[in-house]
Amino acid sequence: WKRLAYHIEHHAETKQKLGWVREMYGWSIGAALQGVKFNLELPPRQKLIVQPPADREIGAAAMFHYTWGTVIKDKATDRKLWEFDKRTYTDAKLPLQVPLIPSPPKFRPGLVMQDGQPVDQKLLDVLNAMIDQMNSVIPALPRLKAVN
After folding, report:
1. Which domain holds residue 17?
2. Pair 80, 115 in one domain
3. How many domains does the structure of the chain reveal?
4. Does one domain contain both 14 and 69?
5. Does 53 lie in the same domain as 27?
6. pLDDT tens profile 88-130
7. What is the 3-class SS of the chain, one letter each residue?
8. Can you give the pTM of this predicted structure?
């Protein structure tokens, strides 16, 4: 893995094509070359993570992987009703205390995601569980210090 990660990092074309996930590819390729076998169950049997909005059931997963941004829109008007994207919370203009994350809207027919896929109650349940979990610990986060 270390050798592969180094090669990827120092090979401009590979680095550019693999982008920010290049180290993950290095690890995966290294594991495969060493014959490491993984038991890769799909949700809801996956015991490690679920990735909303791709996964619509928590099942046996122990964690949420929230790399995907989720936008919920009204299909009829194309109006954005709710959004969660972790990148929103990395802007230096944010307050020094992390704000609570708004909950997704209640289910109603006609809700879709940014890619046009319908939003159902199962997806909203997963999103609410993830947001509730994050909101349960946000008040305990230390206040950040301003950097001048």
Report:
1. 2-33
2. yes
3. 2
4. no
5. no
6. 877 777 778 888 999 999 999 999 999 999 999 999 999 999 9
7. CHHHHHHHHCCHHHHHHHHHHHHHHHHHHHHHHCCCCCCCCCCCCCCCEECCCCCCCCCCCCEECCCCCEEEEECCCCCEEEEECHHHHHCCCCCCCCCCCCCCCCCCCCEEECCCCECCHHHHHHHHHHHHHHHHHHHHCCCCCCCC
8. 0.78
